[in-house]
From TrEMBL:
It comes from the Eukaryota. Pfam families: Ndr. This is N-myc downstream regulated. PANTHER family: N-MYC DOWNSTREAM REGULATED. Belongs to the NDRG family. It comes from Oppiella nova.
Length: 240
C-alpha cells in the first residue's frame, strides 16, 4: 500500500485494445512505432519526463524498444518474459489465425489467451488449463478485430539485438517456454546493468508468484535510488 501511495502508475492500452473499444479505423502502428512513438507521445501528453517501465510479453518488447529509442527517459525496466527474437510461438498458430476454414479454428481471442498461457490448446495440466480459462475470460471484453491488428503487428516485429544501457530486471518463470529465450538475452547483456529473476516451479510469474515479483520489483526500484524508505521485504535477487 505504501508503494502505491508513493508512486504514479500509468497503464497504456495500445490503440483500440481497451475494454469495449469500437473498431479502429486508422492504420495500426507497428510494434516498433508503438515503442518509439506512441509511448513517447503518451508520456509527453502527461508531462512525464522519466519512467521505470514494467511490461510483460508484447508489453516488454515494446518497452525495450522505447528504451533503445529514448534511453534518457528510462530510469529502469522490469521485463517479464521478454521475447527479443522475431516471430516464435504465434507463428505456429499463423495459418489457423489467418486462414480459418471452419468454426473449430481459433479466434483472435483464443490465440492471445493461448499465447499468454503459453500452453497447447489441448493441454491436460490442471494449472495450465486454469490459467488458460482465466486469460480467455479476461480478453472477452476486447474488440476482436482490433486485437487481430495488434497480433499481426506483434507477429511482424523485428528482432531486438541488444538492450539499452539502462538498468534492467529480466523476469521469467522456470516452467515457461519463454524462459530459455530470456536466459539467452541475459547472457548477452551487460551484467553490471542487468539482473535476472528466474522463479522456480511456475509458468506465469505474474499469476503464480506475484509476491516474489513484487519483492524483486521493490528491491530493483530501491537500487535505482527510489522508495528507499519503504519497508524491507524478504527475498532478494542477484546481479550474477
Amino acid at each position: 500500500l505504501e508503494i502505491k501511495n508513493r508512486s504514479l502508475f500509468i497503464h497504456v492500452d495500445v490503440c483500440g485494445q481497451e475494454d469495449g473499444a469500437e473498431d479502429a479505423q486508422e492504420v495500426f502502428p507497428t510494434i516498433q512505432q508503438i515503442g518509439e512513438e506512441v509511448i513517447r507521445d503518451v508520456l509527453d501528453e502527461l508531462s512525464v519526463p522519466l519512467v521505470v517501465g514494467v511490461g510483460e510479453g508484447a508489453g516488454a518488447n515494446i518497452l525495450a524498444r522505447f528504451a533503445l529509442a529514448h534511453p534518457s527517459r528510462v530510469l529502469g525496466l522490469v521485463l517479464v518474459h521478454l521475447v527479443s527474437a522475431e516471430v516464435g510461438f504465434l507463428d505456429q498458430l499463423k495459418d489457423r489465425f489467418f486462414h480459418r476454414r471452419n468454426s473449430q479454428q481459433m479466434s483472435p481471442l483464443d490465440v492471445v489467451a493461448l499465447h499468454k498461457a503459453s500452453i497447447g490448446k489441448d493441454s491436460t495440466d490442471e494449472t495450465s488449463r486454469a490459467l488458460l480459462e482465466a486469460y480467455r475470460a479476461r480478453v472477452q471484453t476486447l474488440n476482436a478485430r482490433n486485437l487481430q491488428k495488434y497480433v499481426t503487428a506483434y507477429m511482424n516485429r523485428k528482432v531486438i539485438s541488444d538492450l539499452a544501457e539502462v538498468d534492467v530486471l529480466l523476469v521469467a518463470g522456470a516452467r515457461s517456454p519463454y524462459c530459455a529465450g530470456v536466459e539467452a538475452i541475459y547472457s548477452k547483456c551487460n551484467k553490471t546493468k542487468t539482473s535476472l529473476l528466474k522463479v522456480d516451479d511456475v509458468r506465469d510469474v505474474m499469476s503464480e508468484s506475484a509476491d516474489k515479483l513484487a519483492q524483486s520489483l521493490l528491491l530493483f526500484v530501491k537500487g535505482l535510488g527510489f522508495l528507499t524508505s519503504c519497508p524491507a521485504v524478504d527475498g532478494e535477487y542477484s546481479r550474477s
